[in-house]
Amino acid sequence: MDFMVFQYPMISVQACLDGILLGILFALIAYGMALQWGVMNIINIAQGDLVILGGYIAYFMYLYGIHPAWGVIVAPIIMYFIGVGLYKLVINKVVDRDLFISILATFGISILFMQLMNFAFGADVVLANSGYGTTFLFDSAVVLPNSKIFSAFISILFAICLVIYMKKSKLGRAIRATAQNARAAKILGVDTEKVYAATFGINAALCGVAGALISITFTIHPYMGLPYTIRSFMIVIVAGLGNLPGVALSGMGLGVFEEFADYILGTEFRIGAVFLLLVLILVYRRFKLSRKREYLK
Amino acid sequence: MKINKIILSFISALALLLSSSVTSFAKVVGDKIILGSAISLTGKYSSNGVHTQNGYNMAVDRINSMGGVKVGGKTYKFEIIYYDDESNPKRAAQLAERLISQDGVEFMLGPYSSGLTKAIAPVTEKYGVPMVEANGASRSLFTKGYKYLFAVLAPANLYLDVAIRTAVELNGGKGVRIAQAFEQDAFSQDVRLGILDAAKETGSEIIIDDKLPKELNDMAATLVKVKQMKPDVLVVSGHTKGALTAIRQIAEMKVDVPMLAMTHCDAAKLSKQHGKNSQYALCASQWHKTLTYKDDFFKDGMTYAADFTKEFGYDPPYQAAESSAALLVFKDAFERANSFDQKKVRDALAATNMQTFYGNIKFAPGGQNVDKPMVLFQVMCDSAGKCENKVVAPLKWASAKLIHPVPKWSER
């Protein structure tokens, strides 16, 4: 245990800012997960792998001399079609089935994606350099890479666009209707098949954006997807489905929690701390639920 | 019932006969010496697995085309049976078992990485199969008393030892303040033990001792501490991802540290991925093409590098060079043993004392190579942004002068 973070107030500020910027990015991935979980009742274990695939798209643009920031536009477009294709191939067969079946199916997709990415792009760790420089705050005591600020800004922009789209567009309304009651929506003429495909596509597109941002801010590697799946699962569990402000808040909370865990417990326990928090939240939820049940009795 | 039993025993007898006949001919078939290797062609080690395989293949072709191996007045050629271990230790152990008991291989070449070598070594040891390995540097491989394991590379605890000693020397012989961050795998933890030993011997102090996770892609917390505590040396070992993440975040956060020493810069293609940001980083390496060791097959490092690039289209990382050296060691041992008896070959391997283009090779009783020091190179870039790795330590092999302390970011 190391309590340096509390001895120097500027380190706390640094940890909070780092955590918030990181959390906003997590929230974007989690929002995609919440969307398709809510609409299709599918927990997508391959979420993180879709993120990494998006990262590779930005990386390849960078390799060919295009600035990787353009990846946030190109990656979601390609990923949307990959998402729709994936839905038509596999996911449509597990919608409406037991949750366990969908977990198994997406787990299989996750393994397949990892191996395919490894096969296609190699096992090297790669990154795309944005050359965005650094912002110094408080007399250089706090340092923020501009790539992180850029990531957070783009994530917020996409989230806002998505909310407006969901509220105003025809497809958005159809998606919300299907989420509320798929059967009723079907009776009222909503083509739920199309809605499901679009939802999965939108989720993949969001993963694509996040992946492009991760390739600019951190590193990518074919086997690095799982931590992103776990984080988004956890954010959704805390925030609940269809609650965007909740997802954003719990994303940022998780980001800050991770940063402090990193400083206090050490980097090696960072993901471990996330797991522990997940277990605690699940236990707490169960406890709350059982009390409610007793009351109902 | 009785007939069934007879048929069954007949079939088993036949199977036994067939399998044993395969075994007895497999080690040397006609004029071929068959070596076996489980190697990571897929999975997370596949890049370095391929470097290893290319190194092996290059040496096999070279030795075969230059007269092969002479044993008992007859000339033999090398051939290697490869299986893909999928970067998975359990799979590697199974494949070693298969190579030995089904394919009848009696001499093995090592896989890639310490972890996989650790999985295979008990199997080769059980069957008394001599294994020359070139990519498992973990200290724990050499403390288990294995008799049939020989490593052509220097053990992991020596990787960054020379960096600490150089820093102390530059500090006028006084101890330095060290910040270190290591991944939690067998290899990096051994590198860490080496640093602890060096620190103790030189009277240096370790002021930050962070451990990094397997899924590392953010080490901002460690770097913030480094900014605050201002150590003299920052040491990082976390395979390719550690090297890449460290350089990216040090440059972004403008962390000034007089000396930065790392492992795996070669495999991380540091200067290619980070350009000028990687300048001044010190990297531990088993081998560098400018070293002046010589042998009859590859001449020297520069010639090896040129030939390798011609054949495979990229500059050889040290993983390829050490793998090629493993074959040279086997050839030398077979000829000195003048036999294919596993015990005799093993004894000949233990008595190896030779120079290859990769370095001197002489095995300690534990099986590690004690005659080849690690080298440190520094990434140096010209004003046009073209970067090169130049050997700076030990002084005997240096092709450039170490730049120390690293200039501050504000002055670059």
Strand order of the largest sheet of chain A: 1-2
Structural class of chain A: mainly alpha
Mean pLDDT of chain A comes to 88
User: How would you describe the oligomerization state of the chains in this entry?
Assistant: heterodimer
Q: What's the domain count of chain B?
A: 2
Number of structural domains of chain A: 1
Largest interface, per-chain counts?
Answer: A-B, 39 and 41 residues
Tell me about this structure.
The complex is a heterodimer of chains A (297) and B (412). Chain A is mainly α and 297 residues long. Chain A has one domain (4-296): ABC transporter involved in vitamin B12 uptake, BtuC (Orthogonal Bundle). Chain A has helices at residues 4-7, 9-40, 47-63, 71-89, 99-121, 146-168, 170-180, 182-187, 192-217, 226-239, 244-265, 270-296; strands at 134-137, 142-145. A two-stranded antiparallel ribbon of chain A has the order 1-2. In chain A, strand 1 (134-137) and strand 2 (142-145) form a beta hairpin. The longest helix of chain A has 32 residues, at 9-40. The termini of chain A are far apart. The model of chain A has no long low-confidence stretch (mean pLDDT 88). Chain B is of the alpha/beta class and 412 residues long. Chain B has two domains: 22-154 and 291-362, Rossmann fold (3-Layer(aba) Sandwich), CATH 3.40.50; 158-285 and 374-411, Rossmann fold (3-Layer(aba) Sandwich). In chain B, 42% of the residues lie in helices and 21% in strands. Chain B is built from 13 helices and 18 strands. Chain B has helices at residues 2-26, 46-65, 89-101, 114-127, 161-170, 186-202, 220-229, 239-252, 265-268, 270-274, 301-312, 318-337, 342-350; strands at residues 28-29, 32-39, 69-71, 74-84, 107-109, 131-133, 149-151, 177-183, 205-212, 233-237, 259-262, 282-285, 294-295, 299-300, 353-356, 359-362, 375-381, 387-393. In chain B, strands 1, 2, 3, 4, 5, 6 and 7 form a seven-stranded mixed β-sheet that branches. Chain B has a seven-stranded mixed β-sheet with strand order 9-8-10-11-12-17-18, sandwiched between helices. A two-stranded antiparallel ribbon of chain B has the order 13-14. The termini of chain B are far apart. Classes of the chains: A mainly alpha (297), B alpha/beta (412). At the A-B interface, helix 2, helix 5 and helix 11 of A face strand 9, helix 7 and helix 8 of B.
